[in-house]
Design goal:
This protein is an alpha+beta fold. The chain is 44% helix and 14% strand. Strand 9 and strand 10 form a beta hairpin. It is elongated, with a radius of gyration of 35 Å.
Length: 673
């Protein structure tokens, strides 16, 4: 219909207009009646042939039917099909502005009534678009916001409808007036849509002073998460990776880019806010920032970050870690009702006598925690060079258990020599942390009371290094002086879930000091892992071509949870084939984990593993298939015998650590049966 067309109604020779305003002026000069019909149709988001005909017949009866086709195929068109027609966004905006004038007020109301009646049988979302357009024509900003709030309310109450609503909004953005998309609820909806579609944070958020309210509740639950190190420095914030940064670790949605809202006290009475990019290896300048900021993620999580003014001294770290160790020694991490040994064994999953003896050793040694460290650093006599009898009112270990140090690999009944001390200390702290983490995980977070002979600023400095995600400020309360003759010692109420992270922070300067003092000493002997016991290990079947890294990560996570994995590098007996060795290993294992990938389906060896696992009499409960970059249907097409089993999935959200938790819980539960 423009240069090069043959329609007799549209024979033109001038160049095509370059902008919407110029186009509208050109068409108005040539075909004013076409603009009259287009103006009435602009109150609808989508125009069908029946709607266009009703608008012409009822409001412009003097025009012939051909005007409908002329408009349908005119340069005012954005998209046209046999069923529906939409107008160019810029042209529609100009025509709707005209409808808001007193001259066209009567015609606008009449057109709106026809559109509402014609679209009465259409979807709620299309009629909502018509409402947004009409409220915009009337200049009712509140009505526009209410319409978008309806969509947000639906997302809040029915999150399963999110994909459908996001698809609708992606199309509606091209049909509703652009000015309506700048409202606060529309901006929030735009951000939610961007996060659902491609995790890209829109410029409307990056350029704002604060994140939209309620964004976290409506963000997709499938949004992956990541961790970054953040430190409050003189000029603002410094971000880095968890491996290279020295700041607190925070968890935030893995968007592009990573973003945070920062709130800090300004020079005036009003606090300042700003949305910043939290990309690693970057710094963000915050004018007039002082000693504390509050961070808020897209998920709605808030963190309070304080500037670290002074490092923890070795004595402070020893004092605080000793306090946690003594609290653990007195079994205060358990709930009061879990006081007997069977109940504590069940919480820790320690049915094996050797495992329980190792736990008791760590618990008893907590009473002597700082003394060996100080002796070692001061060059004094080794208090662990002979068997140590714990000063406890409880019954001592049985004679066949030997020295309490015998739980540590490589330590004889004669005690512990200094060259092995760093390895032992590392092992002891790691065990202490692991036991506490298990108790926290199985009993849930709860406040415990710990006494510290340190000042509040030292305690808060330790907390700042852990990160507010591990120890929220509200969980720290100084209560009362512990003893009348020691007024500098206070009891603190600490959230139990924060302790494993605090142990990591406090252990670092202690282990560093011991390692530095050991430079000229012989290196500690390597710790040799005991071979798996038949019937007490997990067999992991996988294809090396596309799952070796994932399998190794899963193995490491299981070993960290005291689940043996194997047998690996086990020699084959003379005359025994590799096939027989695989079948024997699968048969002797307690559980068979199958890490199924595309190459898993093609491998001859994995087929042997699956066949051996299915032949087990307890295969219904012993097989744990895990999908990795593959679907259930594809797996069952190759291994139909796996039908009816629950498939786990390894992906960004269900990590090797999460899967190891599930497998370890089942593994240890079978011990208790």
């Amino acid at each position: 219909m423009w240069p090069g067309t043959t329609c007799p109604r549209w024979v033109v020779a001038e160049p095509e207009p370059t902008g919407d305003a110029e186009l509208l002026a050109t068409v108005t000069a040539r075909r004013p009646e076409l603009i009259d019909l287009a103006r009435l149709a602009s109150v609808a988001a989508i125009v069908e042939p029946a709607l266009l005909r009703r608008l012409r017949q009822q409001l412009l009866p003097g025009l012939d039917a051909g005007i409908e086709a002329d408009l349908w195929f005119s340069p005012l068109t954005h998209v046209a099909s046999a069923a529906a027609w939409t107008m160019r966004t810029g042209v529609a905006t100009l025509l709707r502005a005209q409808l808001g004038l007193p001259t066209y007020r009567s015609a606008a109301h009449a057109a709106r009534a026809i559109v509402a009646e014609t679209h009465a049988g259409h979807s709620d979302m299309l009629r909502l678009e018509d409402t947004i357009i009409w409220e915009s024509v009337l200049g009712h900003d509140q009505g526009v916001e209410q319409a978008f709030h309806r969509v947000l309310a639906t997302l809040d109450t029915s999150p399963q409808l999110a994909p459908e609503l996001i698809r609708w909004f992606g199309q509606a953005q091209r049909r509703v007036p652009p000015a309506t998309l700048t409202s606060r609820p529309a901006s929030r909806l735009s951000a939610i849509a961007a996060l659902h579609v491609d995790r890209i944070v829109p410029d409307s958020i990056l350029d704002a002073d604060r994140l939209p309210d309620g964004l976290g509740a409506a963000a997709p639950t499938t949004l992956p998460i990541t961790r970054v190190s953040v430190e409050l420095v003189e000029s603002g914030l410094r971000f880095d990776t968890p491996e290279t940064g020295d700041g607190a670790l925070i968890t935030l949605p893995q968007t592009r880019p990573l973003v945070l809202e920062v709130r800090w006290p300004g020079t005036s009475s009003e606090p300042r806010t700003r949305v910043v990019r939290a990309e690693p290896a970057t710094e963000v300048s915050l004018p007039d920032v002082r000693d504390e900021v509050v961070l808020r993620t897209l998920a709605g999580t808030r963190y309070r970050l304080a500037r670290i003014t002074a490092p923890l001294s070795l004595d402070q770290a020893l004092e605080m870690l000793q306090s946690f160790a003594l609290t653990f020694h007195m079994r205060r991490f358990f709930n009061p009702e879990i006081s007997d040994e069977p109940a504590q064994r069940q919480v820790l999953g320690l049915s094996d006598e050797q495992d329980w003896h190792r736990y008791e050793h760590v618990r008893r040694m907590a009473e002597y925690f700082t003394e060996p460290v100080r002796y070692f650093l001061e060059g004094r006599e080794n208090p662990l060079s002979r068997p140590v009898e714990p000063e406890t009112t409880e019954s001592p270990a049985s004679a066949d258990e030997g020295s309490i140090l015998s739980s540590f690999p490589g330590i004889e009944d004669t005690g512990l020599d200094w060259p092995t001390f760093h390895a032992y200390l590392t092992w002891l702290i790691d065990r202490l942390r692991g036991y506490i983490a298990t108790i926290v995980d199985r009993l849930g977070p709860r406040m415990i009371q710990v006494g510290f002979a340190v000042t509040d600023d030292v305690w808060r400095a330790a907390w700042a290094r852990v990160g507010p995600d591990a120890l929220p400020e509200a969980s720290l309360k100084r209560l009362i002086s512990l003893e009348k003759d020691a007024p500098e010692r206070f009891t603190y109420d600490v959230e139990r879930a924060a302790v494993p992270g605090l142990i990591d922070v406090l252990a670092a300067p202690i282990l560093d000091a011991v390692a530095a003092a050991e430079v000229e000493r012989p290196p500690p002997p390597a710790l040799v892992e005991e071979p798996p016991v038949p019937g007490r290990y997990v067999f992991i079947g996988f294809a090396r071509q596309d799952a070796q890294e994932a399998a190794l990560s899963l193995r490491d996570e299981l070993l960290a949870r005291k689940v043996s994995v194997g047998p690996e590098n086990q020699p084959i007996e003379p005359g025994q084939s590799l096939r027989r060795a695989i079948e024997a290993a699968v048969k002797s294992s307690r559980m068979v984990v199958l890490l199924v990938t595309p190459n898993f389906l093609q491998s001859e060896w994995t087929r042997i593993e699956v066949a051996a696992a299915i032949k087990r009499p307890d295969s219904a409960r012993a097989i744990f298939p895990i999908l990795y970059h593959i679907g259930v249907e594809e797996v069952l097409g190759t291994f139909p015998a796996l039908a009816g089993r629950q498939f786990l999935v390894l992906d960004e959200r269900s990590t090797p650590a999460h899967l190891a938790d599930l497998i370890a819980e089942t593994f240890h539960a079978w011990d208790a049966q």
